Amino acid sequence: MARRTLTLFACALSVVACKGSEPAPAEAPDPRTADAAPAAPAEPPTPHPVADPGSQRALRTGERPATTLAPQPLTATRRHEASGHTWLSCPMPSGAESATATELQPVRIRLRGGAHGYAVRVPGPTPARDELVVRLVGAPPPGPIELLVERDPATRWGDPFAPWVLQRVDLSVPAGLPDDRALPAAFFRGLARDLGAWGTRPGSATPPFFAFASARAQRLAGDTSPDAAARPTRAPKTELAETMSLYTGLTSVAEALQTDRGLMTWGSGRTTTGPPVPLASIEGVPMAQHPWDAMLAATGKAPVIEPLASYIPQDVLYIHMGDLRTAVRLAADADDWLESLLQAVEARPATSHLVARYERELMLERTGLAETLGPLAAHGIALVLGDPFVREGTDLSLVIEVRKRSLLMTALATYEAQARVRDPALTETRWSAGEHPVRLVSSADGSVRQHRLELGDLLILSNSRAAIERFAAVADGRSPPLSASGDFRWMRAVYPYDPAAEDAFLFMGDAFVARAVSPRTKILQGRRMAAQADLLAVGFAQLLHGMLEGAPAPTAEALVASGLLDARELRHPDGAPIVLEPTRGARSERWGRADALTPLADLTLTEVSAEERDAYARFRDTYQQYWRGYIDPIAVRLRRSADGKRLSLDARMMPLVSGTEYDELVDKVGTTSFPPPARVGGVRWTLGIAADAPLRRELDGVGRSMKLGGLSWLGDTVMLGAASRSGLWDAALQLEPDRWPQLPAEPDAQDGDRRKREMEAIAHLPVYVGARIANPLGLAATLTALRTLAETTAPGLAVWGAADPYREVPIVTVSPGPGAGDPELRDVRLYYATVGDAFYATLDLGTLQTLIDETLDRPTAPDGDSAEAPRQADLRVGLSPDAPWLARTAALLVERELRRASWRAWRDIEVLAAGLGALPAEGEPRRQAALGFFGYEPVAGPGASFSVDAEGRLTHSLYGTEASPRFPALPVPGSPLARLADELDQASFGLAFEGEDESRGLRALVTWQRR
Hints:
40 strands; globular
């Protein structure tokens, strides 16, 4: 991302430099007047801003209906009966033979009527001789069997949303058909191919269910190749996700924790060699310690620490908040914005319902009661996590500094009573952590497990016994508290505790990082992911049973008897049994469920295999290559305005990992910082460029090589942005029409005048480049030299002129000259101007006028907001209901990613419906089934839902069916994305680099302002 950003800036500056200049007068001119021709009139002209002309392009919306072929009667030619099933074969109907079985053009055959079965295509010597093989549960029904053949015409490089071809087939089954014992094997081979094709999209990995089911079908066909592992996968990040991670500092956090780097020990515990290796004998990642006391003394500041920190272990992720009401409101903000944004940014059409899961485990609810009683019942609260694996399952504790015990206990009793209504079988037990009594309320399946510990005025609720024991050790003095940790004390000197200055504070110290990358954590996490694969495999076999038999197996024994599951797969390699719940998937007393695995803190590990030891050694060596010095803390201060309209985040992450995009960015641009603008219209990237920055030297070298005298005029920042004008929308639709989710254009709209329309779109493209000016005379000299160079090397190619001044600012134009040749370029203009200490260039006059307004009326940042501190890089977005074009264009980008990713949710929901015999009702029934079988709930996307139509096809409320795709207007009214566009005023993401060499760190500065 940093490399792409730097390249954009360098190219933009070069384009600007090569476009415009004026002849040199006798002496060096003032750049404010050098390019103004004719001279400014005596009286300042009245500004006449160029109104936005409005969109000239419209998104093509509507439905692409499927192609329906005439019904066709077919007659079965062979038959076989065995184990309560009937197999029939017949030729493929005409119209479905144009795609071979090896292409990504699968054919789906649905049985209609009373019989349940499954049909697949079996390839013949040529596509014209392909066969259809039907597997029926029981004997064939009387009369013809009605089939619906659906062909997906999309090719690997073609249209992913082309309508399908549908054809009804009436299959007659005459008496006396020859018996063919090869039909079952042919059917399962065809099923394996179909499952692989239906579950795959170009450029993406096959989802776990389809990989598992395809391999299992191969085994049933007699293929002895090993089954595919039911491993959970994560989609690769989109460009938008990469950008957001970079500019919020999340990239730095991920680099420190390395949560995405497993040990590649999926066979752990399955195939091992040699004797077990004691865990204690494995060397962890060495962690150098800063001289914190000396560093703290050097700051001249005393740390200001909240009382709760004296009760917290040191090796945890710690989030402190002022009271319960603040926690409820911040969680509501996350519900309103974060989940929808994450789905859009990650293009992940699924949710793990993490907040709901942990609330259920702890028997807590974010209700009006919590918000009302929050300030009365508690002084402050802390959320404590033992490791970074929140999605898989971590030990999570809520620490409450009690103000009024009776109020707090009343609220907790209310929540427990509601939990007992949901699960009357909840049990209560007592145990002791040291000398401290602990109350445990839990469910048989582990979905509820609240450990309650009281330490004086402190109340601790946790889902982990091990976490409670660690809190007790701190209270008894057997473990040091977080408040005594040098890195925490130093960070609390940088961010002193002040309820008026922060609503939440997050801290992740080097002890937490050390624990996250320790041999115990990395090896246990590898084993836990292998255990999750075991659980998923049992659930996938159950879903495959439902697809083939019409209903899920009633018991695990029946599933084994069907041949879809081996009895040995009902135990983990360590011997822990796996329990199948027919409509909820698999669970394990030791490892948990696929969606909520047992926290690592509550698992035991004393010995590992030699393979695991060696895998960790490789990880440790690689990690040390990144972190060649100290590992410093990560801290985040969050502020929320009283009206909830402004959120600001100020975070420090240190040090930077060597060889990353942050490293590349700071090495290119240096460490010069700049104060950010308080507001922009549209989107703007700004980079600070130090006087000795390599990027400046490179650009200067280009200028000198062209005899332009270098870029001594360039100030400390360069900019690249886009105004929120209709030209942005038009350019997106015209320049790349095939990238967006819309109906295809008519054939006559693709011919000769396309280039003309493209040039028209470019002529109004509201993209601009800019820079701060350090030396006005140097800029004038460079512009003059550039124009002279252009007129000498390409005379007549361009014509320099002047537009009407705007707010007394001269505006220079560069237009195609008679030597340009291409008539399509006649409407393209370059406009540039010098405004105060800024230089801007753009293709759209209205955009330049907007920049002049912003520069002359430049507002200041809010007083006392540290999130608006100086930085070296800044990404800023400003939306306005009067200029909706940036939001609409962003909706195109997000909708494209969501729609591309929606096929995964589509397939998962189809599998769930087929595997359980019907699609579970929307809401809690569907959520619990999906979480149990997949580990997540597939979702239709923000503001959308799935249902099943009369033909049994899955229907998306916005996109229609796969057979007849629908393309809605964007953004969809009422969707979270539309609401975001309506409510967001300004958002900013800044990066600042602090320190030198091994101590160089990152500061991320984020603001989010609603209207």
